[in-house]
Prior knowledge:
Number of domains: 2
Strand content: 25-35%
Number of strands: 16
Largest sheet: 6 strands, antiparallel
CATH topology of the largest domain: Tumour Suppressor Smad4
Protein name: Sphingosine kinase
Domain DAGKc: 1-136
Organism: Actinophytocola xinjiangensis
CATH architecture of the largest domain: Sandwich
Oligomer: single chain
Shape: globular
Keywords: ATP-binding, Kinase, Lipid biosynthesis, Lipid metabolism, Nucleotide-binding, Phospholipid biosynthesis, Phospholipid metabolism, Transferase
Helix content: 25-40%
CATH class of the largest domain: Mainly Beta
Distance between the termini: 30 Å
Structural class: alpha+beta
GO cellular component, one term: plasma membrane
Amino acid sequence: MRAAVVVHPASGRGRAGRVADIVATRLQDQVGDLITDLVTVRVNTVEESRRLMGRAHDAGLDLVVVVGGDGSAHQGVQFCAERDVALAVIPAGTGNDLARTLGAPADPVAAADALVEDLLADRFTRIDLGRIEGEPAGSRWFAGVLCAGFDSAVNERANRMRWPSGPRRYDLAIVAEMARLRPGRLTVEQDGVRTEGEATQIAVGNIRHYGGGIPICPAADPTDGLFDLTLVGPASRLDLVRMLPGLRTGRHVEHPAVTTSRAGRVRLGEANGWVAYADGERIGPLPVEVTCVPKALNVVGRVVSD
């Protein structure tokens, strides 16, 4: 097996860069019989990641170990899904939702040890992916959750802010967006069935969690061949405040403004000013169309329910 450890050093405020060598050493020392060739690739931009990973693939690559958060994992998914290369994720970012889904311990060193155990046990799983089609994304994959509406507006505002840094930036962005909260007209087409109405936000989940452990789609299973959708209809500021306590437990779906459904193909539109995000990465303005592609990605580990 030929493997590459891919690290975005700035991920997780530098945490990824600090633990990358430890991960590589664990793999070299404990699974050297399985991994005959191991390289460490340090990248600072998406373009650099794609270029260096392409070179690695030309040399023959069987496994990519991403050290970072969901944004880093998102880039690993693009590479591995297109080339049928296995993916492992060591959580060292801020969200780490894909790593959580695959049962990785929160501590990156412990996750490296768990990865060693999985490789020695030949523990691999095929999971579904979402494929985003059409402008402006072209064709692109996501492993986690695609969302649009209020939470995406928070992301948009936070990305524009230069102060403060860290979680407080998102706290302030939430307050600012809450003050200007307005439901929008949203068309949702699920497996050819079209509905239209006022909505506050929508999440299309391949996995349960986004945003660092929030089970926005609490019943989602990345091995069942379907997306889980969580739609928040017209909601007031008070409604959102009342939903907040249930977000960490998944009980927000019990609120009267929330509806859930399942589908293999989803189109969100028309253009209403909303912007879509997937795996925490900006996709672009609606409309957007996504398809669940069963067993599109080979990952190291097993899917866990929590």
